[in-house]
Specification:
Layout (H helix, E strand, L loop, with lengths): L8 E4 L5 E6 L5 H11 L9 E6 L17 E4 L11 H14 L7 E3 L1 E6 L18 E6 L6 H7 L4 E5 L2 E6 L5 E6 L20 E11 L4 E4 L2 H16 L8 H18 L5 E6 L5 H8 L21 E3 L5 E3 L2 E2 L4 E2 L17
Parallel strand pairs: 2-3, 3-4, 7-11, 11-13
Antiparallel strand pairs: 1-2, 5-9, 6-7, 6-8, 9-10, 10-11, 12-13, 14-15, 16-17
Helix pairs in contact: 1-2, 4-5
């Protein structure tokens, strides 16, 4: 077994990308192990890009396969041995680094709960059968005070809550949008209950519902412009930490990615304003509009589709990838890490 194989975990996303997450040294191993437990990850023998995890003050000391290409180096800050109380933050930074890599291909984190409608679990009480008779995944978007967790906990069969706070949206080569459930990191702070999420269980996204508290449950369709405004407000609520310590140019690049991803998603997926009460059956309002939505793509995502290049062009003409340093939430092109047996390329 190679050094890179020990402790390696694989995360496969529905946009066609796959990440082999490896600790760059012993102190980083607990971070990778914790992420694997939370996201229910295992090692897989397939093509993918390596993400090497290091803690503050350490350089990667792992030998990667000769054909692995240039990895992304994720510095998650002080290790558990230095700051045990901050350990959940280090793990969430690693997850944020992964989400960041989806943005050039139209992906984004949204502050929304993910729910799936599975009609065969129980007959719908609606006269027309409700839901259109197909499995449907919907996103319940809103800030932390709107009641996403409460709404998720109230969903009855045939609804199933996949996550209650944050969802990763990705787009595949067919321009189909998929939703990955994402951990609720607040559950790991203090004496929180923790938890686990099957983040690789992507579901086709059928509709987005922007939540608003109201005495009466009702629903209203939104224009693409209104949906774009809601998405633009939602992304920074969960991905805003990417902006910490960035210079003006880097900050502008991140915002441009957010805007580009939201601008593509808004006209592609139907959006609604969902007014929810504390005791009403708001899910029936969703079920009434599901039959009118475009049918989702039910086949598996083309996971063999190669991910797009993340690289940039330096002043010397050498193409090297962005390196994500989560401790500073910035992109550092100074470090070009390659396996010891692979020489550094020389600029033309």
């Amino acid at each position: 077994m190679s050094e890179a194989a020990r402790g390696r975990l694989t995360l496969t996303l529905a946009d066609g990308s796959a990440w082999h997450i490896v600790p760059g040294h012993d102190e980083a191993r607990p971070v990778v192990q914790a992420l694997g437990k939370i996201m229910q990850l295992k090692p897989l023998d397939r093509s993918g890009r390596f993400l090497v995890v290091v803690t503050r003050g350490h350089d990667p000391a792992v030998v990667l396969p000769a054909d692995s290409g240039v990895p992304v180096i994720c510095d998650v800050g002080a290790g558990e041995e230095i700051a045990p109380d901050l350990f959940p933050i280090q793990v969430s930074r690693l997850a944020l680094a992964i989400a960041r890599q989806t943005q050039p291909r139209g992906g984004m984190l949204l502050h929304g709960a993910l729910a799936e409608y599975i009609p065969h679990l129980i007959p719908s009480p609606l006269p027309d059968g409700g839901g259109g008779g197909v499995r449907s995944a919907v996103l319940l978007v809103g800030p932390g005070t709107v009641g996403k967790t409460t709404a998720s906990n109230r969903l009855p069969p045939p609804w199933r809550s996949l996550c209650d706070d944050t969802t990763l949206i990705v787009r595949d080569a067919r321009r189909q949008y998929w939703a990955h459930p994402w951990p609720t990191w607040s559950r790991f702070y203090g004496n929180g209950p923790g938890g686990g999420w099957d983040v690789q269980r992507a579901v086709p996204l059928r509709a987005i519902f922007f939540l608003r508290q109201d005495p009466v449950d009702r629903i209203e369709p939104l224009t693409a412009g209104e949906a774009l405004a809601g998405l633009a407000e939602s992304v920074p609520q969960v991905a805003g930490s990417m902006m910490i310590h960035l210079d003006e140019a880097e900050e502008r690049a991140i915002r441009q990615e957010w805007l580009a991803s939201a601008s593509a998603l808004a006209p592609a997926i139907p959006a609604y304003r969902l007014h929810i009460s504390l005791t009403g059956a708001f899910w029936q309002e969703i079920e009434r509009v599901l039959p009118d939505l475009p049918a989702p793509t039910l086949s598996a995502a083309p996971l063999s589709t190669p991910a797009e290049d993340f690289s940039c062009l330096t002043d010397h003409g050498l193409r090297i990838p962005f390196t994500f340093h989560a401790s500073r939430f910035t992109f550092d092109v100074r470090r070009l890490y390659r396996p010891k047996h692979e020489p550094h390329p020389t600029p033309a």
